[in-house]
Amino acid sequence: MRVAVVGAGHMGRYHAQKLAARSDCKLVAVADVERARAEALAGAHGCAAFTDYHGVLGLADAAVISVPTERHREVAGACLEAGLHVLVEKPLAVDLDESRDLIALSRKQSLVLQVGHVERYNAAFRALAERMQRPLFIEAERLSGFKLRGADVDVVLDLMIHDLDLALALAKGKVTAVSACGFRVLTGDIDIANARIEFSDGCVANLSASRASQAPVRKLRVFQQDVYVSADLQAGKLRYVRQSGGAIEEMEETHRGDALAAQAEAFVLAVLQKKAVPVDGESGRRALELALEVGRLVRERLEKFA
Prior knowledge:
Layout: E1 2-6, H1 10-20, E2 26-31, H2 35-45, E3 48-50, E4 62-65, H3 72-81, E5 85-89, H4 96-109, E6 113-116, H5 123-131, E7 137-143, H6 155-170, E8 175-183, E9 192-199, E10 204-210, E11 217-224, E12 227-232, E13 237-244, E14 247-254, H7 259-272, H8 281-304
Parallel strand pairs: 1-2, 1-4, 2-3, 4-5, 5-6, 7-10
Antiparallel strand pairs: 7-11, 8-9, 9-10, 11-12, 12-13, 13-14
């Protein structure tokens, strides 16, 4: 499979590395608006460099899109129209109309459209999800220090959307209610947010995200009738707690792996072997829809108390 990477920034470099390491695909091109950045990444992997993404369209079978979110519709759309399978970084697009356009294009062209919700490929999350039949309560905490990378969107679209996607993957029902609050701290947009999401099967998710914290935290806790699971997604550690014969039993597991490499593998297998994509365009749209609703509620509250 001939693959190109569009966007040679932080994530683009990692995508190129994972794809170039595979024996079943070949990195043929890198595109970035900054010539030096495109040439540096292309030079590291022995492929062509372009400053205009249109240059990769005739060279590749598939493309990984790692450009600012506001350009996802333009770049991913052009790749799909040219017949390329696409893996696009999260969020899928800036709004629901653009996300629907990309989904419709992929279906019309019978092409893979995968969204880069990389936490779905986290080995600890995968192990946790296998044990959860009917979650009752989901709690997530995702904290990070401030970085200019990702500041083109608010903290909901930058960080919380990971856990919104995980909650949607775990819960068995549809979203029935959403409430949220948040605050501006370091930028003119939302830097801290908390959301409560209720599902039709009775499950409730409470999610917190911050890009104004000292130390990174990636915690996920899931409760169901017979077990409680605490996950440190950063360290790959799981702790199960359950009641057995009147006594409390605890068990710990470690699940380490390369989530980005697993995501790349899923993309390649979806193209070459037509395997189902774990995080397809519709999954990306659902996460985006929920993230936009959380952002809307936060902004309404901020205006009310301004």
